Amino acid sequence: xxxxxxxxxxxxxxxxxxxxxxxxxxxxxxxxxxxxxxxxxxxxxxxxxxxxxxxxxxxxxxxxxxxxxxxxxxxxxxxxxxxxxxxxxxxxxxxxxxxxxxxxxxxxxxxxxxxxxxxxxxxxxxxxxxxxxxxxxxxxxxxxxxxxxxxxxxxxxxxxxxxxxxxxxxxxxxxxxxxxxxxxxxxxxxxxxxxxxxxxxxxxxxxxxxxxxxxxxxxxxxxxxxxxxxxxxxxxxxxxxxxxxxxxxxxxxxxxxxxxxxxxxxxxxxxxxxxxxxxxxxxxxxxxxxxxxxxxxxxxxxxxxxxxxxxxxxxxxxxxxxxxxxxxxxxxxxxxxxxxxxxxxxxxxxxxxxxxxxxxxxxxxxxxxxxxxxxxxxxxxxxxxxxxxxxxxxxxxxxxxxxxxxxxxxxxx
Length: 413
Ligand SMILES: Cc1cc2nc3c(=O)[nH]c(=O)nc-3n(C[C@H](O)[C@H](O)[C@H](O)COP(=O)(O)OP(=O)(O)OC[C@H]3O[C@@H](n4cnc5c(N)ncnc54)[C@H](O)[C@@H]3O)c2cc1C
Fold this sequence. Notes:
By secondary structure, this protein is of the alpha/beta class. Helix content is 35%, strand content 23%.
């Protein structure tokens, strides 16, 4: 079968790898370019479910190179909660044993390894047409691409999703994010408070006014999941160490999504002035090109739609805010189910049946993923009120100091 995938992102490339291995003909249309060497902007936490899928979809040597390019649970054992002065409020253990954190750049470069010939860059999809025998895609340059099935993996705001389901697939949330990347290691930069907070993994510092800062050190050079020197024939893609921060807060108090780098930097400096000096210092240490204002979206409940030869995966069907840290893992999970469904399929009736099965399976977990990803934002929203903030942080800090144990976290809904 000839399969067209729109979008060479996380889900699209993972699917392409699996479908090519299953013997299908695959063309990937990408509106931009494949990721080139260089820093990635941010790093992704992939859960064990996603890692199990990748172990199945990728050639063994490529999967080993992936492990050698990121860090495992050994360096990401806990999520530590702090107040804005970096005083500990508690922590939760990373329950997932086979988690991998990897830069988005290395992940995409490795997912494209060996299949770049199948990717057509600068081809932005506009619409699809379904006939009894095939399906074709028209791109904005006026060209068409024809195949037996189209997999829409073009992320949030997909034009093909709009045509298929009549909506853009995501409602904007009343919270936004500014994120950035600081090259180097916290301790080497003199950020001892942050280095301490990140000793066991990730950290979330909760501030006043409904703001919170997520912090994570990414250091695959010293803490890879697999020793890169014994990785095998495919070279690991190792990034230099960096610190990732993301300031979450009410949309109305953040700059607009079109704000430039200097505006973003000034805004974060202003908003974190009263925080711990290490945090207040971060904007000045941040690589300016990495500064991003991210609007947060969440998918409405995933609808059931009549199955056709056009299907969806990843953010194109169930976009989630990064607060759940699960959007990429879910795109890979979708890829696994879709590749399984299409393996061995050769004719149209069998194809539609297989796609229908995939869509049912994906819908069964998609809504829970979206709800779970919004929960931390709800929690933060409640802390906007100064009395609530003071009461919650004081109680949690006292409990933690007296017992060394965290109070239970808010429920996921
Ligand atoms: C700051 C941040 C941190 C995150 N952290 C995590 C994390 O720790 N763990 C996690 O699991 N997830 C995380 N996520 C979410 C994760 O990045 C996304 O959920 C994931 O990339 C979705 O994969 P996808 O394949 O659906 O789409 P994408 O990876 O976004 O890929 C879509 C691709 O389609 C292309 N495209 C778009 N429109 C068109 C078109 N019309 N025609 C052709 N091509 C098109 C795009 O250029 C892109 O290459 C984070 C996101 C952000 C912003």
